[in-house]
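Reviewer has doubts. Consider these tokens.
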Amino acid sequence: MADRPRFSKTQLGQYLDRIAVPAEHRLYDVSGIADGDKFKYLSLLEKHHLIRIPFENLTLHYSWHRVIDVSPRHLFSKVVAHPSRGRGGYCMEVNTLFHTLLLSLGFDVSMAGARVYDPGRQRYGGFSHCVNIVTVAGVQYMVDVAFGANGPTRPVPMEPGHEGVHIEPASVRLVNEPIPQNLNQRSKVWIYQHRINEHADWVPMYCFVDLEFIPEDIRAMNLSPWKSPTSFFTQKIIVTRFTTAAEDISSPSPGVPNEAAVLDCGIDGALIVDHDKFKWRRNGVTVLERTFDSDDERLDYLRRYFGIELADEDADAIAGTAGQISR
């Protein structure tokens, strides 16, 4: 049996606190429950994770060390153990953390590597993303809690052509086919596609392989977004968090929704910070937009809309770098 880190029951409790799962809905071992209940719990965990834990690359800009450590112990400390900081991470961080949660709860789960699609070049890059593959009742589901606003919001069945809902009016699907860059056109991969409404074209987001990636693969793959000079993560700040209908756009400081708001409401949009721009989209419509005038204003929005609090020494570390806002 392969050895993987697992969280203790105490740590699982802290994790479920962090993603605002109410006590009466918590399960600590899914191995003996009915398949239908297992799938419902997986869906609940994914939704709570997307709403409460941001997809972000702040460590690459707002820290003196700029080190991305994808070990579950470090990720637990960064994201879970200090909830008042409101931190998340990018794909290799947050999907690894979620993988360890699912594994610790008794889910049948493995990780797979993914190649992100570049629409400008109309090509896939190398392996620089990862997803979780969870099997329930013999059906495999792709689960991804760290891709940003166009990432899946529910487990996606690995059934070619099956269409799933996203944030209305958008939808998502998986197709199983070769990509044009393959010399071997008999070699198929799973392609995750998104479209903004039923009249729009399907757009590939990424493709992933039907091959388990072990922790050593994830660590090696992490070097691409962390260190590559062509990685956009090193050039600008990206932060995304999914939102619910309970969040009030008129509030000057909406913060992160509480247990009841996350549990009772579906995902209806996403908050996005893209370098010096802030956007709140709900059901396909931009309802709030802002261009930041300074780093201080960006930090204020990170606190008010994402619940992210940075120490002064981390906030100061961006001075003179590509991520700094200069006016």
Observations:
- The longest strand covers residues 123-136.
- Residues 269 and 282 are 4 Å apart (CA to CA).
- The two ends are 56 Å apart (CA to CA).
